[in-house]
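To whoever is on call:

I kicked off a structure prediction for a single chain this morning and the downstream step that reads the tokens threw a length-mismatch warning. I double-checked the sequence; it's 144 residues and nothing unusual in it as far as I can see. Pasting both halves so you can look.
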Amino acid sequence: MKPQLDADNYETDPCLKQIRKAESYSWMDIITIHKDKLPNYEEKIKTFYEEHLHLDDEIRYILDGSGYFDVRDKDDKWIRISMEKGDMITLPAGIYHRFTLDENNYVKAMRLFVGEPVWTAYNRPADDFPARKQYMKFLTGEAR
């Protein structure tokens, strides 16, 4: 049986510890997205929903609440990924994506990074970045 993440006990969860070690996720923080918890809430929500990419992987572990990551498929169509408590996702560097809350308007998530965090989002179009070109090679099966 595959080990399960335990969002209720993330501080001491051996499965999370194992993942962080294996993937070299040395830095983490917690973000709570809710109008009463996040400064500049309305502005942040709009920013998260703007289609963008990052030059590093984006790793999120949902500790409470729920929301959606939208990603583009190889035909540039949106795919909606429902995320809820206990889910972890890694969005590869160079993938266009966006995030939005669902009708509950609340999510608490752990953000994980390899090394120091880089928060820079590059709004579409951002096709000239090496991370985007590498992702497109992967998507089309050209990556080695």
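Update from on-call: the warning came from a stale cache, not from the record. Cleared it. Sanity check on the structure: The first strand starts at residue 27 and ends at 33.
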